[in-house]
Amino acid sequence: MDFLDNNMVILKKGFEFLKQIEKNNDRVWFSEHKSEYDSIIG
After folding, report:
1. Does 36 score more than 80 pLDDT?
2. How open is the CA angle 7-20-18, to the nearest 5 degrees?
3. Distance from C-alpha of 17 to C-alpha of 9, rounded to nearest angstrom
4. pTM across the whole model
5. At what angle do helices 34-41 and 3-23 cross, to 10 degrees?
6. What percent of the chain has pLDDT over 70?
7. Is 8 within 8 Å of 35 (Cβ atoms)?
């Protein structure tokens, strides 16, 4: 996988995560999924 493909995967995961935040807009949901967030931005 080259650099561009890797960035697209990260962007797609980030976008899917943002859609989930919009759908489940609460602190409890985010705290339960914080590790997923950290893995996307980390």
Report:
1. yes
2. 40
3. 12
4. 0.62
5. 150
6. 98
7. no
- Looking at residue 1, its pLDDT comes to 64
Instruction: Tell me if residue 13 falls in helix, strand or coil.
Output: helix
Domains in the chain: boundaries: 3-41
The amino acid sitting at 27 is: R
Q: What are the phi and psi torsion angles at 22 (to 5°)?
A: -60, -40
- Comparing CA positions, the residue from 38, 33, 36, 40 lying closest to residue 10 is 40
What is the DSSP secondary structure assignment for residue 26, as one 8-state letter? Answer: S
Tokens (6 digits) for 3: 């650099």
Identify the residue whose tokens are 């609460």. Answer: 26
